[in-house]
Amino acid sequence: MSYRKRTAALASAAALAGSAVWMAAPVARAEVVDVDYQCKTPIGDKSAVSPIDIKGVKKGNGYRLTMSWQKGVSSSPVELGKGAMTPSATIALGGADSGTLSVTGPANDAAIPANTPIKISDLSGTYTPRKSGAVTFTAGVLTIKALGTTTTCTPTKDPGPSLTLDVEAKGGGGTTGSAQGGDSGPDTGAGLPRTGPEDSAVALGTLGGTVLLAGAAGALWLTRRRRGAETAR
């Protein structure tokens, strides 16, 4: 193989290496999903449909998940005063992982009038990957505790995932507190703070560009060396 062809081959290999690194970058896919709930309340069964949004933000070796309801669900025959209602929910894991993650949130910060759909505050929990790969997050059971009573709202069918993350397990971790929600403490991850998996994709894409430039530089150095040797003869 001539040195010219060898140089072209090295440049092509560097380009392919950069592309491979970029293709391996983690991605996140999210969508708002309508969830059809059937609720068991102290005064009988009720139904409600609410769009559910789940977001994931990278935090240390895990992700801080936030679950949001765009419409109220269930209702109370009497007014619920400030702080009288406490919500919690589960998120079903699928894909590369399995089980459930519990998410919790604050009590209502304002009174809820009687016979009015109960607006659920954002609920959150921390997920630490146990396996690497694409993990899906789907709305599970919603629990509302108020005035000594418990209302349980269960999706009538599989609504489909609201979020999919490509994750990498670190040292055999798991969901916080045996698949329970809650804060895992301050973010001790090294390097600059990241707002989500998209930042990982940008970082890996930059690495791919570095590999490409390094390969091209090496090819250019070999070509100049060869020309110098031929001139010296």
Give a verbal description of the structure:
This protein is of the alpha+beta class. 26% of the residues lie in helices and 36% in strands. It contains three helices and ten strands. Strands 1, 2, 3, 4, 5, 6, 7, 8, 9 and 10 form a ten-stranded antiparallel sheet that branches. It is elongated, with a radius of gyration of 26 Å. The chain starts with a helix and ends with a helix. The C terminus is likely disordered.
Short characterization:
With 233 residues, the chain is an alpha+beta fold. Helices cover 26% and strands 36% of the residues. The relative contact order is 0.23.
Q: What order do the helices and strands come in, and which of them pair?
A:
Elements: H1 3-23, E1 28-30, E2 33-41, E3 44-59, E4 62-69, E5 85-95, E6 99-104, E7 123-127, E8 133-146, E9 149-155, E10 163-167, H2 176-179, H3 197-232
Antiparallel strand pairs: 1-10, 2-3, 2-9, 3-4, 4-7, 5-6, 5-8, 8-9, 8-10
Strand segment tally: 10
Separation, N- and C-terminal Cα atoms: 21 Å
How much of the sequence is in beta strands? 35-45%
* Overall pLDDT level: 73
How does the overall form come out from the CA principal axes? Answer: elongated
Cα gyration radius (Å): 26 Å
Helix content: 25-40%
Structural class: alpha+beta
Enumerate the spans where pLDDT stays under 50 for 5 or more consecutive residues. 13-26, 173-225, 227-233
Number of helices: 3
